């Protein structure tokens, strides 16, 4: 016996959600085992996008079912009630799994745009919360929906073999064989794309012997620059420690994020009445550079990024400071990853008694310092342009 089919909208929503769920599961499992790479970013963006789409469609599906109750399955009353309970359990998990992923993404601080088109905000108040808690919640809910889907499919077979009720055609679009084949082909194409991206991903390179060999020379260069920095009569200003007063802004998968340089030593010799005699000398601990995300902080220490083992320090020195349009411009040299390039820092200076405030900014192109090489050498995943913002409280 074949029962009355669902209406067309219900069938479309059912299979759209089903395909997206299986695709999201495949994307998540594949991406989780990949090395950090632009392709991994792309797969996780697709994973989150598929999940967020499931969340929206599941809400629509729930309201549609409430307004258009399906015909009875043609089963005994107890089995009808059990089947209805199973369906409502699936609806709950279709909402809970992607929502837990949204919670997890919010605690991790990952910027996210739906299919790289529409920015999805973080859920407020979750940044800094335990990521492990929400990660475990997402995993356990995934196991729950996997078991429910397996049970859902198994009961179709049970009802067919033992109750003589064929429930599958009431949900399939068109002929059974044609509909099933189309759905399987669609899912196979999506998963095939995911595996293709996984095969393309290249592992993070480690620091090369050549980079390690350059380490003593890099230390000497920083030391020499610091020794000559004091050749000025301008007063010395030193940092009053405050959190995150040296930040950088970049974009990840098209969405902006803010990182910080947590450990640096600025020595600023400056008199606003005589800027030409000033010197700005800053040493940066590259190990302290953070994206405010522990996953990516591990990646950026590697050879394709900052090579922090080989180059634990970066250095900026400027002896060319000029007044310009009510502000000051420091033209200097930044040495990063053993590479020296000119960088201009524009800043404002506010001085009162023995304290001062230095508020400046600069823009660098990460390619000039071979930051993000190899598979990262494109603008698509992490932008080339990095904006530095400096807000220092100083004392004489």
TrEMBL record:
Q: Where in the cell is it found?
A: Cell membrane
What keywords does the record list, in alphabetical order?
A: Cell membrane, Electron transport, Heme, Iron, Membrane, Metal-binding, Transmembrane, Transmembrane helix, Transport
Give the transmembrane region(s): 12-31, 43-64, 85-104, 140-162, 174-196
Asked if the keyword Chaperone belongs to this entry, the reply reads: no
Please state what the protein is called: Lipid/polyisoprenoid-binding YceI-like domain-containing protein
Query: Which source organism does the UniProt entry give?
Result: Alteromonas confluentis
The UniProt entry's GO CC annotations, sorted and at most eight, read: plasma membrane
Cofactor(s) annotated in UniProt: heme b
Q: A Pfam family name for this chain?
A: Ni_hydr_CYTB
Topology of the protein relative to the lipid bilayer: Multi-pass membrane protein
Q: Where is the Lipid/polyisoprenoid-binding YceI-like domain positioned along the sequence?
A: 236-395
Q: Which GO terms describe its molecular function?
A: electron transfer activity; heme binding; metal ion binding
Taxonomic lineage per UniProt? Answer: Bacteria, Pseudomonadati, Pseudomonadota, Gammaproteobacteria, Alteromonadales
Q: Which domain of life is it from?
A: Bacteria
């Amino acid at each position: 016996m074949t029962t009355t089919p669902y209406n067309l909208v219900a069938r479309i929503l059912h299979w759209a959600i089903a395909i997206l769920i299986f695709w999201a599961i495949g994307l998540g499992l594949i991406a989780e085992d990949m090395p950090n790479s632009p392709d991994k970013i792309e797969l996780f963006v697709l994973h989150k996008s598929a999940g967020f789409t499931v969340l929206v469609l599941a809400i629509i599906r729930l309201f549609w079912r409430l307004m258009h109750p399906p015909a009875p399955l043609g089963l005994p009353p107890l089995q009808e009630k059990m089947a209805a309970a199973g369906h409502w359990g699936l609806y709950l998990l279709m909402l809970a799994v992607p929502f837990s992923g949204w919670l997890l993404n919010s605690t991790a601080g990952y910027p996210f745009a739906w299919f790289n088109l529409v920015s999805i905000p973080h859920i407020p108040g979750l940044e800094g919360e335990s990521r492990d808690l929400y990660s475990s919640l997402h995993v356990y809910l995934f196991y729950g929906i996997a078991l429910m889907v397996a049970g859902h499919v198994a009961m179709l077979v049970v009802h067919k073999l033992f109750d003589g009720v064929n429930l599958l055609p009431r949900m399939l679009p068109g002929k059974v064989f044609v509909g099933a084949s189309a759905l399987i082909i669609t899912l196979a194409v999506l998963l095939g794309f995911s595996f293709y991206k996984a095969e393309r991903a290249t592992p993070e390179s480690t620091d090369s012997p050549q980079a390690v060999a350059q380490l003593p020379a890099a230390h000497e260069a920083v030391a020499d620059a610091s020794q000559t920095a004091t050749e000025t009569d301008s007063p010395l200003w030193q940092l009053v420690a405050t959190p995150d007063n040296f930040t950088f802004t970049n974009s990840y998968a098209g969405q902006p994020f803010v990182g910080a340089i947590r450990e640096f030593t600025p020595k600023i010799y400056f008199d606003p009445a005589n800027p030409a005699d000033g010197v700005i000398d800053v040493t940066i601990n590259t190990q302290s550079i953070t994206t405010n995300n522990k996953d990516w902080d591990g990646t950026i220490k590697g050879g394709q990024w900052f090579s922090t083992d080989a180059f634990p320090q970066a250095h900026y020195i400027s002896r060319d400071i000029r007044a310009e349009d009510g502000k000051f411009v420091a033209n200097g040299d930044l040495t990063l990853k053993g590479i020296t390039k000119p960088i201009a820092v524009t800043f404002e200076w506010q001085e009162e008694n023995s304290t001062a405030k230095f508020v400046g900014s600069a823009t660098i192109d990460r390619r000039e310092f071979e930051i993000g090489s190899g598979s990262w050498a494109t603008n698509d995943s992490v932008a080339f342009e990095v904006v530095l913002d400096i807000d220092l409280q100083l004392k004489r």
